[in-house]
TrEMBL record:
This is AraC-type arabinose-binding/dimerisation domain-containing protein. Pfam families: AraC_binding (PF02311). GO terms for molecular function: DNA binding. The lineage of its organism: Bacteria, Bacillati, Bacillota, Clostridia, Lachnospirales. Keywords: DNA-binding. It comes from the Bacteria. The keyword DNA-binding applies. Residues 15-56 form the AraC-type arabinose-binding/dimerisation domain. InterPro entries: AraC-bd, HTH-like. Signal peptide: none annotated. The keyword DNA damage does not apply.
Length: 59
């Protein structure tokens, strides 16, 4: 059984959202943002596709 954790925090004074996801194994649909997005992966791998190019973390 896969245990999923999704925590979302919002700070109104700096207008920033922070997300913590753990144990989620799903594909996200193609989309884009009008703002910056920063991701951090503690362990495992994630493939990123941007403008039809695929990026994998270095080994």
């Amino acid at each position: 059984m896969n245990h999923e954790t999704r925590i979302i925090k919002y700070n109104a004074s700096i207008k920033m959202e922070a997300y913590h996801f753990q144990g989620i194994m799903q594909k996200f649909p193609n989309h884009f943002h009008e703002y910056y997005e920063i991701g951090y992966i503690e362990n495992g791998k994630r493939k990123l596709t941007c403008k039809e190019r695929e990026y994998m973390p270095s080994e």
